[in-house]
Design brief:
heterodimer, A: mainly alpha, MetI-like fold, 11 helices, disordered N terminus, B: alpha/beta, Rossmann fold, 2 domains, six-stranded mixed sheet, 7 helices, globular
């Protein structure tokens, strides 16, 4: 910031303005973007090296015949071939889309249910006492436990998959919002009240925005739970008419004793889970934290 | 509940008090039964007057401010203010999800200022606290002194006739605090606001106020009052400020010493 040189015409006033401008300039932190090269070395190189190392160890296990049984451990090359064939036959994107569309749609429904539920638990004492502990407890129940009852209630169909996703993701999303609301600093609530933000206005202008970081953390976890629940449902309730998603692909591989196909499915499940997180939830979380100055720059 | 009153009894409708605190007591339920925090406080703040409330820990000065702000209710007695007062805290209490300007605009919005007028009014208020151009800055991008000035602008956005300040400069470094004292004095004189300013810093109290009210501790009672007629602009190092500060500090020490004698 340029220092404001003022002629001492009105004496004390301009002195003060100059002093203040100086203080402001001295105490304001200058921030800039990191150079691309540094980002590459700090953020991209380490995971690439880690993946390369895993592939090298895997290849070594096969090459040096430490595990000499393709039905137990296929070579990286064999898995790559299976992936390539699926791509060439035009099936690969179909597998991925079947699962991703189910996962995202289920997550979307979970969002619609989890958000008002979380708000209700956070703000209404009776509701919190009644279902708060159950909601937290449900998070530790593996969602695969819901598959058998869901199949019995709903049959082998897409509704069953969505039900399992909801049961897995709704508690995470609701709990995220509850902890977000619980962690709103009381000072913000007092400040809001003096400004006239009470009741619904207070919820809308103060409580919800203040709870956003916790809510986004809940969404992130909710997605992870959605994806895990869906995979469990697809593996257990694989049924040809439902279309082949990644879970069914894994189950088909097991039935055919085709270890390369099993590895293909596992890799795809992992990749999709990571990709959605990296493309949607991590940027969302970083944006929320950075705009509030909560992201610690290492 | 604070009643909105303070209209003159003579029927002219002129406001005679920015705040009127009448025989206010406050006690809280504690582990050792009810604890009396404020005992029979009676205090008027005239329109345009700058009053500082001074006291050691436990004198209930923040409690009193909360009562006047309407954030809490007195156990007995009555508090009347001319409209809802604005309140500034020791922490800036700005909302980090909004920019500096949007924080001010939220205050305007909650007061019912039409959407089209908010931006311009916020710019004016930022200019008043000499932060022109800071509208789009995030709270964490501002220094401590700048944050308190935005907080002051947000409080002023409420367009209240009474500004309550709860040790708003206590967390700042000495030179920034001194600059903000000058700013507050300038803004107070420009806007003709009434200010009720709580502090434990005697020099600060004397430098700013027209009237210094000393509270005793546990329970808080009004111990003594001083009228400060040192002309503005005052400096923290002025002899007159120093002399009165010494006198008040002696009195404050006496109040504190009483608590060591059982």
């Amino acid at each position: 910031m340029a220092s404001t040189e003022t002629t001492a015409k009105d004496g004390d006033g301009s002195d003060l303005a100059g002093l203040e401008a100086g203080l402001d300039a001295l105490e304001t932190v200058q921030t800039g973007r990191k150079p691309l090269r540094q980002t590459f070395v700090e953020k991209i190189l380490p995971p690439v090296l880690a993946i390369a190392l895993v592939l090298a160890v895997w290849q070594a296990l096969v090459s040096f015949r430490i595990v000499d049984d393709p039905t137990k451990l296929p070579s990286p090359g064999a898995v790559w071939d299976v992936l390539q064939q699926a791509w060439l036959k035009g099936e690969l994107l179909g597998y991925i889309w079947t699962s991703v569309s189910r996962g995202l749609l289920g997550f979307f429904f979970a969002l619609l249910i989890g958000t008002p539920l979380g708000l209700l638990v956070a703000r209404v004492k009776f509701v919190r006492a009644a279902i708060g502990p159950i909601l937290s407890g449900l998070q530790s129940l593996p969602s695969v436990a819901w598959v058998p009852p869901a199949v019995i209630w709903l049959g082998l169909n897409n509704q069953m998959m969505y039900a399992v996703i909801l049961l897995g993701a709704v508690p995470s999303i609701a709990n995220g919002l509850v902890s977000g609301v619980d962690q709103v600093p009381p000072l913000f609530l007092r400040a809001g009240r003096t400004l006239g933000a009470t009741g619904l206005k207070g919820t809308w202008h103060v409580v919800l925005p203040a709870a956003l970081p916790g809510y986004v953390a809940g969404l992130k976890q909710g997605w992870a739970f959605s994806w895990r629940s869906l995979m469990a449902a697809e593996i257990i309730a694989s049924f040809p008419d439902l279309g082949i998603g990644l879970g069914q692909l894994l189950e088909n591989g097991r039935n055919a004793s085709d270890m390369a196909m099993v590895f293909e499915a596992i890799l795809l499940i992992l990749t999709v889970g990571i990709a959605i997180d990296l493309l949607i939830f991590s940027p969302l979380e970083r944006w929320v934290l950075r705009s509030r100055g909560l992201l610690v720059k290492s | 509940m604070a009643t909105t009153l303070a209209k003159a009894a003579d029927g002219t409708g002129a406001v005679t008090h920015a705040a009127r605190i009448e025989h206010v007591s406050k006690s809280f339920a504690g582990p050792a039964g009810h604890q009396l925090v404020l005992d029979d406080i009676t205090l008027d703040v005239a329109p345009g007057e700058f009053v500082t409330l001074l006291g050691a820990s436990g004198c209930g000065k923040s409690t009193l401010l909360n009562l006047v702000a309407g954030l809490d209710r007195p156990t007995s007695g009555a508090i009347g203010t001319d409209g809802r007062p604005a309140l500034m805290f020791q922490e800036h209490a700005l909302f980090p999800w909004l920019t500096a300007g949007k924080n001010i605009e939220l205050a305007l919005k909650l007061r019912g200022v039409p959407k089209n007028d908010r931006r311009g009014r916020a710019e004016e208020l930022l200019e008043l606290v000499r932060l022109k151009g800071a509208h789009g800055k995030r709270v964490h991008e501002l220094s401590g002194g700048m944050r308190q000035r935005v907080a002051l602008a947000r409080a002023l956005a409420q367009d209240s006739r009474l500004l309550l300040m709860d040790e708003p400069f206590a967390a700042l470094d000495a030179i920034t605090r001194d600059v903000l004292h000058d700013e507050l004095t300038r803004i107070w004189r420009e806007t003709r606001l009434s200010v009720l300013f709580v502090t434990h810093n005697v020099r600060e109290a004397v430098r700013l106020a027209q009237r210094v009210v000393l509270l005793s501790s546990r329970p808080g009672r009004i111990a003594r009052e001083w009228t400060v007629d040192i002309p503005h602009p005052r400096r923290i190092e002025d002899t007159a400020v120093a002399e009165l500060s010494v006198e008040i500090t002696e009195e404050l020490r006496g109040e504190i010493r009483r608590h060591g004698q059982h």
